[in-house]
Structure formats: C-alpha cells, structure tokens
Design goal:
Chain lengths: 133, 545
C-alpha cells in the first residue's frame, strides 16, 4: 500500500476544489485505451453473469422454501431434509463464489489495474485530485 | 418479521419470569469490564484523530482482515444473534431463511460495490453518487437517505438495548429502562466523540471476536451433547416441539398466500439491502486500497457465514433443550432463546458472558451508525452543500463531533419513545429503505454510462418515499393486534415488507428520470469515475502518522 509518495489527500481538506480539470481529457483518452477496455470487459464479464447466477439461485431457493413445502420436507438422511441441504448449499455457493472471485481478481484484474495505474501515475494525471468536484 | 423483535413486549411478560436471567451482578460486572477495556482502547486509538480522514475513515489504516472483522461486528447486530436464534427455536426452518438472505447479500457488496466504491469515494456514500452528477441535488438526496436509514436502524438498536437490559439486569419498570437507554446512549456518544472511526472500529472488532467466539463455544457444546450428530439434534428439537413441522419450511410464512408473498418481499429487501446500508459502505473507506476492501468483504463473508451456521445449531439447540413454549413464556419471549440456552448450558456465568456480549453488540452497532450519520451530515450537508466546500477540515470535524452529540441525544429520546415498539418494523424499514433508496443509484452510477442527475434524484426520493409510505399503510403500523397503532386501521397495503414494490419502483424511476433528462452529464467526469473505479488511480491513500 501507499507505494507512491504522493502528498496526503487526507490532510488536504475534505473538499477538493475543481482544479481537477487538467486530468479530464486524459481520463476520456484512457477510457478508450484497449488495455482499459480489456480491464472493464474482464471485470464485467465476470461480475455480471455471476451476480445474475447467484441471485437466480437464491430466488429459486426462496421460491422452493415458500411454495414447495412437500419437496423441501423430503427427508434424505435421518432428520436432514432437502430444505436444509439446499439452505446449506446456499452457504457453500456463497463461499465458493467468494473464493472464485478473489482468485479471478488476483489473476485477471489486479495485474491490469496495477499496470494502468502505474502508467497513469507516471504520466500527466495528478493523483491527489480527490473524487468530489 | 418477529425475528428482529428484540425488545417487543418485554415489560408485559417480565413479571412471569421463570428464569430471572441469572445473577444481575455477574452480568453487570462482565459488561462493566467490557466497557472499561474498550474505553481504554478507544482512548489509545484517539491519539491520532486530527484530520477528517482520521476521524471519518480511521486514517484508512486498517488492514482488510481487521476491517472485515469490524464489518462482521457492525453487521451482526443483536437482531442477528438473539433474533435468529429465537426465530429458529420457535419457527424452526423459517428462521433459517433469514440467515441465508443476510449472508448471500454480501455477494452483491463483494462483486458489484465494495472495490469500486473504495476507489471513487472519500468518506461517505454521497461522495460516490455525486461523483459525476450534479453535486448539490445528489448529495442532499444521498445524505437524506443515509440519515433516514441510520435513524431507523438506531432507533431499533436503542429500543433493543432497553428490552435486553430488563432481561439481564432485572430492570422491568419503564423508568429503569429509560435510564439504561440513556446510559447506553451516553457511552456511545463518548466512544464516537473521542474515538472517531478508529475507536468505533476497535469496539466493533472486539465485539465481533467475543460474539463469534461465544457462539462457537455454545455451538460445540450443543453439538457435543448430541454426539456431533446434527440429525439427532434436529430429532430432539422436533420431539420437544411436539411436531416435525419445525424442520420443514412454512411454519411462519406458509400460513397464507399473503404471508408467502411477504416472504418474497422480505427476501428481496434482505439480499439487496446489505450492499446499500450506509454504515456498511462507510467501512470500506477505512482500508488503504481497493484490494484491502475486497479482503475485508471476504473476511466478513467467512465470519458472518460461520456465525449464521452457529445460529442454526443454537436455534435448534434452544428448541430442543428448552422448548418453544418455555422460551415464549420467558421475559423477552422469542429473543430470550440464546440467553436461556447459555443459562442451560453454563449456568449464570455463561449467561452473564453471553448477555454482556449481546449488550456490547448493541453498543458497537449504535456507535457505527452514529459516526456514519454524523459524517454524512458534516461532510455532505454542512461542508459541501451549506458551505459549498469552503470549510477547513478542522471545522468539518468539529461539526461532525457536534452532530454526534445531537444524533446521540435524538436516538436516546427516540429509543425511550420506541420502548416496547415493534422493532422489526424499524429494522425492516432500514433494510427496505436502503435497498430502495440507495442501491439503484449506486449500481446505475457505477455501471450505467448515461445515468443522470434526474434519474438519481427520482430514484432516491422515490424509493425512500415509496418504502416509508407503504410501511405506514401496512399491517405493521395499523390494522392488526401486533401493530404499532393497535386501535386504528388505515392499512391498505397487505405486506409487512415493502421491498417487492419499492425496490423495482426505484430502479424504474432511476431509468425513467435518466431517459427523460435531456441535459446530459459531463462525459469527462463519467470517464474519470470509470477509470478510477477500476484502476484505483487517484484513490484516497492511507494517512501516515
């Protein structure tokens, strides 16, 4: 963390004046760079389908628990029924997606983001303009 | 929704107290110890509270694992602990459904929100939402929804404190409970005033460790009694309840077509509400980088997931060892399941420990909410709207500190007023308001290039108003025996949770406002936000001391 010796923005004041303008043209140019478009594609092509998938799976479970009582009450082992197993599988899938995303981000997103960040910070873009106008 | 019903109807049943929650002095001693230790830590942590970044974001110096633990501490409120254990003990499987919603919701935060928000914002949710839109209208709207969500959440926690304490310390009269709420509120003000975000974070970390460790010990204990055989535990729970229905879905929500529909609405609000809770979002600013923000969520998911697995065992354990009827007859009703189970397992000492942990839980959550609300007021409303950015950081932090006192006093008064009220109403409102008022705008502004100021403002105010109006005219407020206003009946909305209407409506309004907005937004700002959100260029750095 904090490898770049930039002035500390936290000390700079809560609101940054609108002098971020020199950077603005650059950001539009960066947005068009193939490397950045690649990063955005990689990010979205992972998180959007994954978000759709876990929401579908969650609502499938909710609807089953809500409307398919007999099915969910079917006993599998001892007193453990399908409902409990599917519920526990929600935990499993949540943990699995978490680990999957972390591994994907470490391999496919972080290197590109770091590369772009290094390029930009070495270039013309001021690093401590702050987000707010 | 009586899951989250922490203090409801406590005083009414307290006279029948079969187990007067062990020894009040043990509970008080343990809780006093917690307060003393955390106060020392808060004092130590406060030495570096100089700038706004220190005060609001703890100098962005926490690691991902520390912040993840603090998030778990922030998220696992007394409603989670007492409420879910009680709900599973009494309603069986239907209580378990809540745990799942509360956990799965974190994937929204992990995949779509946490890192991008950390990269673009500074202190508050409004920083992100107003990044590329018109500052004033969007900031005011975002601060309004932030304050609304925090306030309802705060009321619930404060009222919960009163109810819990009557159980633990044997204080049953209204005056005593009001006094306790005042003490809790004053302590919280002290923590936040002195410690800022750093102090608050440490309180949450300590509390999360205690809560999760306590639940873990009890879980192992219960499982050991059944030879680590989950099926045997379930069988005993069904035997004690006298019906196997506790193992099957539908006991609580399967009653009618409306209640089934209500459950879908609740499920929607839970899964979409978490990633839009302002006090959760603000925690992402306490770490130095987006990567640490990601790590925080991963830690939080593991801790929260593990905790909810414990509550499954504890809930059925309480159902098996104490029984639903005995729990409902106890002071505190459904919420007494976890304390009663602790008493059953380890006598007064374990009960004292678990109760002190539950109490600490409320204190930590309240502190997190207070600092979020204060930051939003001082940073968004005062510094950026009233003073138009012309204020020095010291002045802003001064305002934030004063706001802490005002919010603290308001929540003490509100908590006293809300005693015995249906807290489920307040917590559900907070989740539904967050999901309706905040989430559409967060997602649109991060991912939809064309999104405009009008869309943001319509979505936030529309979502906020729809959620609140639908709750006011729901059976929660009037028209049934358990309503807030029992005598009246002006309910026309049949569901207790407004999410299924208000959340899609807010998404729709955000889209509609944008399409109808011909002025358009600055493409350069959009480019800056997109580039920064994904690469972390120019993101706020950690403060070095």
């Amino acid at each position: 963390m904090g490898t770049t010796p930039t002035p500390d923005p936290g000390q700079a004041g809560p609101v940054v004046s609108p002098d971020a303008s020199p950077a603005i043209a650059d950001f539009q140019e960066v947005q068009q760079r193939p490397r950045f478009r690649e990063l955005r594609r990689r990010h979205r092509s992972f998180v959007f389908p994954m978000a759709a998938a876990f929401l579908l799976w969650y609502f499938l479970y909710v609807l089953l628990a809500d409307y398919a009582h007999e099915f969910m009450s079917t006993k599998v082992v001892g007193n453990i029924n399908i409902g409990l197993i599917l519920g526990l599988l929600q935990f499993v899938s949540t943990f699995a997606i978490t680990m999957w995303y972390v591994s994907y981000a470490n391999r496919r997103l972080d290197p590109v983001a770091a590369e772009l960040r290094a390029d930009l910070e070495a270039g013309a873009v001021p690093t401590e303009t702050g987000g707010s106008k | 929704m009586n899951l989250l019903n922490v203090p409801a109807a406590l005083p009414a049943t307290a006279t029948t107290a079969p187990t007067q929650a062990g020894e009040p002095w043990i509970n008080m001693t343990i809780f006093g110890l917690f307060v003393a230790i955390t106060l020392v830590i808060v004092l130590r942590a406060s030495r570096n509270n100089k700038t706004a970044a220190d005060y609001y974001a703890a100098g962005r110096s926490f690691t991902g694992s520390q912040n993840g633990t603090a998030i778990a501490g922030d998220y696992l409120s007394a409603a989670s602990f007492l409420g879910i254990v009680g709900a599973i003990a009494i309603n069986g499987y239907d209580g378990f459904l809540y745990s799942i919603g509360f956990l799965v919701a974190w994937l929204v935060a992990l995949l779509l929100v946490a890192e991008l928000l950390r990269n673009t914002g500074k202190f508050t949710m409004a920083d992100v939402l107003s990044f590329r839109l018109k500052q004033r209208p969007v900031r005011i709207a975002a601060a309004t929804t932030t304050l609304a969500v925090c306030f309802f959440y705060l009321l619930a926690q404060m009222a919960g404190a009163g109810g819990l304490v009557s159980l633990l310390l044997g204080i049953n009269d209204k005056l005593g409970q009001s006094l306790v709420i005042t003490v809790v509120g004053a302590l919280m003000i002290l923590y936040v005033l002195i410690g800022g975000m750093k102090g608050t974070t440490w309180v949450q970390i300590i509390k999360a460790c205690l809560l999760i460790a306590g639940a873990f010990v009890m879980t192992i204990w219960v499982l050991a009694m059944y030879g680590f055989n989950l099926s045997a535990l379930l069988g005993d729970a069904a035997a004690t309840a006298g019906t196997t229905d506790v193992l099957n879905p539908g006991l609580q929500y399967g009653v009618s077509g409306t209640s089934k529909f209500d459950f879908i609405s609740l499920a929607l609000a839970l899964v979409l509400g978490t990633a839009a809770l302002p006090h959760v979002l603000m925690r992402f600013y306490t770490v130095p980088t987006a990567k640490e923000a990601r790590k925080s969520v991963v830690w939080a998911i593991w801790l929260i997931g593990a905790f909810y697995l414990f509550t499954l065992v504890l809930g059925y354990g309480a159902g098996a060892l104490i029984g639903p009827d005995a729990i409902q007859a106890a002071p505190g009703g459904v919420n007494s399941a976890a304390p009663l189970l602790a008493f059953h397992l380890g006598g007064p000492l374990l009960l004292g420990l678990i109760s002190a942990v539950a109490f600490a839980t409320i204190l930590a959550v309240v502190a997190g909410l207070t600092i979020t609300a204060a930051a939003s007021f001082a940073h968004d409303i005062y510094a950026n709207v009233v003073r138009r950015g012309k204020v020095d950081p010291d002045g802003e932090v001064k305002v934030a500190r004063r706001t802490v006192v005002v919010i603290g006093v308001l929540s003490i008064l509100g908590g006293i007023g809300a005693q015995g009220q249906n807290v489920a109403f307040l917590v559900a409102l907070a989740f539904a308001v967050a999901a309706s008022a905040n989430l559409p705008t967060i997602l649109y502004s991060l991912f939809w290039k064309r999104f405009s100021t009008r869309g943001a403002v319509w979505s936030m105010y529309g979502g906020l108003a729809a959620a609140i109006v639908l709750i006011v005219f729901s059976p929660v407020v009037s028209g049934s025996e358990t309503s807030m206003v029992p005598g009246a009946d002006f309910a026309f909305f049949p569901l207790k949770n407004p999410g299924i209407i208000s959340i899609p409506l807010a998404f729709f309004l955000g889209w509609l406002g944008t399409v109808l907005d011909r002025t358009g937004e600055d493409p350069a700002k959009q480019a800056e936000m997109e580039v920064r959100s994904l690469t972390g260029v120019g993101a706020e750095k950690a403060v070095d001391h």
